[in-house]
């Protein structure tokens, strides 16, 4: 493996190291990549399928309807988030929580007819499950992995930040087919590196004849790619959010071709109340259908991350 270091650039949407799973593969890349964990992602792309799966698998201390009853009785939806995870959730200059996840949860609460309460118990506590009613839902670019699904319900997909190919402006590279034998940069240890090497997919899914160059962090790779002639890479695989942020701050780069695979973000709930998960899914689907997810993602993230229609 090549590990490259260098001067970092300011890229606010760096890939989170908290989650390292791949959800689904774009069919247009099928000749070069296999479909990793596709059943996990697509099983929850349709909210009512997610609820059905949760109903069959749920175990835990909650009784059916307990979370929903608590929320409606208290007229409060408690959201757990990371308080230092911009642009999804962070404190503004006045100390109030703000960000994409906050805006999404505010809208969900309004559609349930309740007010939103925000708590910040710490990421490890959130992802451990068994919340015992301390909060009702959690958000924070949570991906629907098997590990997360063992302790959390996946109520609904509210965003999709797919993997894309980032190239220098003016390059002849138009998509993944043009990278056979090329040099592709990724963040070391990231889901993108694992995917290119075929570690999170079926055998033979790695890109044929490509040289994979791993950087300590994504900004190093983007900075290198921006140099063009002196760059060690021909392209970089990053999330859609990272790509748009790099373009937005003036880096001479562009997205080439369709997404390589999807990375859905889910709203998590505690195990044991599929009725509550179904109500969250219903609200989120209505937000997708009426354009609210698109509007809020463009407003807060600068790009449309609304998931595809079921």
CATH C-level category of the largest domain: Alpha Beta
Structural class, from secondary structure content?
alpha/beta
In the CATH hierarchy, what is the superfamily of the largest domain? Periplasmic binding protein-like II
The main pleated sheet reads as: 7 strands, mixed
CATH fold annotation of the largest domain? D-Maltodextrin-Binding Protein, domain 2
- Write down how many β-strands occur, each being a DSSP E stretch of 2 or more residues: 15
User: With helices defined by DSSP (H or I, 4 residues minimum), what is the helix count?
Assistant: 11
- Taking pLDDT < 50 over at least 5 consecutive residues as the criterion, the unreliable ranges are 1-61
Distance between the termini: 39 Å
| Computed CA radius of gyration, to the nearest angstrom | 20 Å
Name the CATH architecture of the largest domain: 3-Layer(aba) Sandwich
Report strand order across the widest sheet. 1-12-11-13-10-14-2
The helix-strand sequence is EEHHHEEEEHEHEHEEEHEHEHEEHH
Instruction: Name the helicity range.
Output: 25-40%
| Tally of separate domains | 2
């Amino acid at each position: 493996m090549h590990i490259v270091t260098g001067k970092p650039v300011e890229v606010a949407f760096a890939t989170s190291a908290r989650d390292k799973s791949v959800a689904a593969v774009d069919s247009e890349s099928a000749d070069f990549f296999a479909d990793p964990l596709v059943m996990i992602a697509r099983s929850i792309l349709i909210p009512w399928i997610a609820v059905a799966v949760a109903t069959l698998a749920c175990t835990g201390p909650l009784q059916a309807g307990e979370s929903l009853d608590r929320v409606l009785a208290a007229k409060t939806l408690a959201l757990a988030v990371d308080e230092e995870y911009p642009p999804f959730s962070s404190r503004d200059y006045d100390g109030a929580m703000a960000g994409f996840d906050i805006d999404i949860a505010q809208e969900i609460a309004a559609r349930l007819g309740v007010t939103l309460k925000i708590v910040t118990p710490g990421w490890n506590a959130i992802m451990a499950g068994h919340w015992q009613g301390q909060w009702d839902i959690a958000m924070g670019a949570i991906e629907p992995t098997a590990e997360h699904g063992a302790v959390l319900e996946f109520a609904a997909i509210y965003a999709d930040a797919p993997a894309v190919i980032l190239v220098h402006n003016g390059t002849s590279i138009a998509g993944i087919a043009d990278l056979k034998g090329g040099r592709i940069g990724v963040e070391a240890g990231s889901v993108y590196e694992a995917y290119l090497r075929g570690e999170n997919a079926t055998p033979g899914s790695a890109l044929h004849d490509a040289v994979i160059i791993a950087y300590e962090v994504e900004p190093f790779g983007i900075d290198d790619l921006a140099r063009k002639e002196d760059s060690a890479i021909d392209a970089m695989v990053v999330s859609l959010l990272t790509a748009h942020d790099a373009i937005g701050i003036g880096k001479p780069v562009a997205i080439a071709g369709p997404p390589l695979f999807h990375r859905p973000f889910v709203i998590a709930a505690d195990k044991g109340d599929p009725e509550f998960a179904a109500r969250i899914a219903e609200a989120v689907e209505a937000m997708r259908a009426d354009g609210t997810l698109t509007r809020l993602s463009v407003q807060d993230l600068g790009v449309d991350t609304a998931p595809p229609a079921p």
